[in-house]
Amino acid sequence: MVASDPSSTENSFPTQEKLVLPVIHENLVVEKVSVETGKLIVSKQVTEETVSVDAGVTYEQVVVERKAINQYVDSAPPAVRHEGEVTIVSVIKEVLVVEKRLMLVEEVHITKRLHHHENIVSQTLRKEEVTITKAASGTDI
User: Fold this and answer.
1) Domain ranges in the chain?
2) 41-52: average pLDDT
3) 15 has pLDDT over 70
4) Whole-prediction pTM value?
């Protein structure tokens, strides 16, 4: 038998008769149904608590002292110098004598002092707490 030859009549169906083969296709349909199994009650309470916090405050204080010197000098001292924690600013003036000389009039001593002050601050803080209780009997959740 040659399947590709249409003129061959051996073991073949007549040309007028058609063969129909049914093709079956199945589909699956899935549905969901919600079922209540119980109820919960959710509530919250707000509690207040006053808290005191020790908040230290640090500040700096500057002390200025004027010290009279009134001495003649041969050359001008440095305009600003430091001795330890003290900053010294020299103030000079010219004085007319038979000859001109420098006179150290005064020194300004500047000292920094560090102060610390404890400060207590009170503030009300709120906190929420949640409580969950079962409302009705039913299936455990």
Assistant:
1) 51-124
2) 88
3) no
4) 0.37
101-131 pLDDT tens trace: 888 999 888 888 888 888 888 888 888 888 8
Helix H or strand E segment including 140: none
How many CA atoms does the CB half-sphere of 47 hold within 13 Å?
Answer: 6
Q: Which amino acid is at 98?
A: V
CA separation, residue 17 to residues 20, 21, 63, 72 (Å): 10, 13, 123, 142
pLDDT mean over 50-74: 89
Token pair 């061959």 is found at: 8
For residue 10, what is the DSSP state? Answer: T
Specify the pLDDT at position 90.
Answer: 92
- Give the C-alpha separation, 50 to 13, whole Å: 100
Nearest Cα neighbor of 45 from 132, 123, 122 is 132
Which strand (E) or helix (H) includes residue 94?
strand 86-96
Partners of 41 in beta bridges = 133
Are 66 and 106 spatial neighbours (Cβ–Cβ below 8 Å)? Answer: yes
Tell me the torsion sign for CA atoms 94, 97, 100, 106. negative
